[in-house]
């Protein structure tokens, strides 16, 4: 367990280095929240790791560009995708088309 007063890339670099020293040889995919310097810290210790932004953070960031009048029309579909139960539901959800266009 690691404790710190604040979370930053330097903190995570120390955590990742310690994990490497304890025998964690590789991380295939790291899902991150957008903390500045975090992807660089991961790749400094695990250079082959694929970095992916968390889907929840991606949705939140993209909703900043939606006009308030269109917000309600856009958000129900994105909320529904987060509640899918299994891989089959995910495939169905990702394959669906948007029934109306927001202008």
TrEMBL record:
Biological-process GO terms, alphabetical: DNA transposition
Alphabetized UniProt keyword annotations: DNA recombination, DNA-binding, Transposable element, Transposition
GO molecular function, one term: transposase activity
PROSITE patterns: TRANSPOSASE_MUTATOR
Origin superkingdom: Bacteria
The keyword DNA-binding appears for this protein: yes
Residue runs in coiled coils: none
UniProt cross-references to Pfam families, sorted A to Z: Transposase_mut
Known role: Required for the transposition of the insertion element.
Family to which this protein belongs: Belongs to the transposase mutator family.
Protein name: Mutator family transposase
Species of origin: Escherichia coli
């Amino acid at each position: 367990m690691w404790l710190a007063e604040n979370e930053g890339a330097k903190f995570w670099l120390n955590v990742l280095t310690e994990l490497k020293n304890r025998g964690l040889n590789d991380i295939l995919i790291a899902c991150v929240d957008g903390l500045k310097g975090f992807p660089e810290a991961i790749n400094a210790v695990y250079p082959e790791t694929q970095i992916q932004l968390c889907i929840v953070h991606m949705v939140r960031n993209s909703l900043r560009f939606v006009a308030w009048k269109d917000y309600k029309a856009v958000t129900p579909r994105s909320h529904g995708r987060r509640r899918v139960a299994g891989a089959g539901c995910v495939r169905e959800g990702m394959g669906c088309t948007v029934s109306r266009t927001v202008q």
